[in-house]
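Quick one, probably user error.
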């Protein structure tokens, strides 16, 4: 698809009680509107590991990162990351919880005390998933990465705003458990994209219910096809009737942005999973065209001067990353999840480990330019999906929805008191490759 046709295309467009502490709302904050766009299935190294504008980015530039083809063979052939990722990935890598175990620990059944999170199992799991031991170049797609020339839109976002290079998914598993953590601080024991997400069956309190209870406006703009919009995961949304009024098609987002009529909290679902979400087989340049269109709609909106735009990805999608996720973190609740691994044995997960790093950028005229944020300073926890809920709670004086939310690091300190008048009105065109 040409850049011109891309431009035309995108123009048309709780099981657990809340933690007890209630933060004070930030009445003096310049941020009045929070916009969150959650894309699909790319690890940090895969999408952002090739960025070169800042040597402090913890990516793959000047780093040799390799995985063995056979983790049980000490003499195995090694497959090393190369800056030659394809516009359309040939395969959709395994991103189940047990697949993630293998990718991180080189075993489907890790013991945190006995097994090191060496990040050495991505190639082996890709080979096992697709039976391609004889085609290591095909398996290498899971470890290869993009350069700034491949991803000029994201590169420009990162260069102009705040890039997190240590932001972890909430769950080391697939889309919907992560989206549940993103919107409620727990997946209520769900570790896969099961039927409860299609029938509005999650019982926990979500950010959408919480905002409504506190008189804070919100809309979930959605272009979903295979899944319900995130707000409709929850029984409250469906039963309250707000699924009819507060879940709107994505073309309404563009109209509302242009009119200066976005709510205080905007949540955006992309289409999934063929053309705009980045989830294989979505072309990377079409995903870039989509995130460009969202940014430019916000940048040209009368509300831009009071807006914070958070772009993140729900999970790593099975793509490799060299940084091991934190262990022994507070779960959202006391529920566990059990699934059968590829070896036929059951594995139980207690939601006590974060998922693999994903690309995340904060964009606003109130954040610094070209900032690369690694570990949080002056606060416990890590930057992870529930950091968004932590920030929103602190901004508007809401209770933390779960222990995971309370533990998470907030990015509040990255919001400055200096307004920038140099934020780009337009971003580069997506690459053809």
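Nope, works fine. Designed sequence:
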């Amino acid at each position: 698809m040409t850049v011109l046709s891309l431009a035309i295309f995108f123009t048309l467009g709780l099981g657990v009680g809340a933690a007890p502490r209630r933060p004070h709302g930030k009445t003096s904050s310049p941020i009045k509107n929070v916009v969150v766009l959650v894309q699909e299935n790319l690890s940090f190294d895969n999408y952002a590991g090739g960025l070169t504008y800042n040597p402090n980015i913890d990516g793959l530039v000047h780093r040799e990162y390799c995985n063995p083809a056979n983790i049980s063979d000490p003499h195995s052939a090694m497959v090393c990351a190369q800056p030659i990722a394809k516009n359309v990935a040939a395969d959709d890598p395994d991103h189940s919880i047990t697949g993630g175990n293998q990718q991180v620990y080189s075993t489907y059944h890790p013991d945190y005390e006995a097994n090191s999170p060496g990040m050495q199992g991505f190639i082996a799991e890709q080979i096992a998933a697709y039976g391609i031991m004889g085609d290591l170049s095909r398996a290498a797609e899971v470890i290869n990465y993009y350069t700034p020339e491949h991803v000029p839109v994201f590169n420009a976002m990162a260069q102009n705003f705040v890039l997190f290079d240590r932001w972890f998914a909430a769950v080391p598993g697939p889309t919907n458990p992560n989206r549940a953590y993103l919107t409620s601080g727990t997946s209520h024991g769900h570790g896969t994209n099961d039927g409860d997400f299609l029938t509005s069956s999650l019982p926990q309190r979500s950010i959408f219910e919480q905002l409504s209870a506190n008189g804070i406006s919100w809309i979930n703009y959605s272009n979903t096809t295979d899944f319900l919009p995130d707000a409709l995961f929850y029984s409250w949304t469906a039963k309250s009737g707000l699924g009819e009024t507060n879940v709107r098609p994505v073309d309404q987002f563009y109209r509302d942005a242009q009119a200066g009529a976005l709510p205080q909290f905007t949540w955006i679902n992309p289409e999934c999973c063929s053309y705009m979400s980045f989830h294989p087989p979505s072309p990377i340049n079409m995903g870039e065209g989509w995130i460009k269109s969202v940014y430019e709609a916000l940048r040209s909106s009368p509300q831009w001067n009071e807006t914070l735009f958070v772009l993140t990805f729900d999970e790593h999608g099975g793509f490799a990353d060299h940084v091991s996720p934190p262990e022994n973190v507070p779960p959202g609740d006391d529920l566990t999840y059990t699934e059968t691994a590829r070896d036929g044995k059951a594995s139980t997960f207690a939601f006590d480990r974060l998922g693999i790093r994903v690309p995340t950028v904060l964009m606003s005229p109130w954040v610094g330019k070209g900032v690369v944020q690694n570990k949080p300073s002056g606060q416990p926890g890590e930057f992870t999906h529930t950091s968004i809920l932590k920030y929103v709670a602190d901004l508007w004086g809401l209770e933390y929805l779960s222990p995971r939310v309370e533990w998470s690091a907030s990015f509040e300190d990255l919001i400055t008191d200096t307004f920038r008048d140099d934020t780009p009105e337009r971003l580069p065109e997506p690459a053809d490759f």
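Confidence is low (pLDDT under 50) at residues 1-20.
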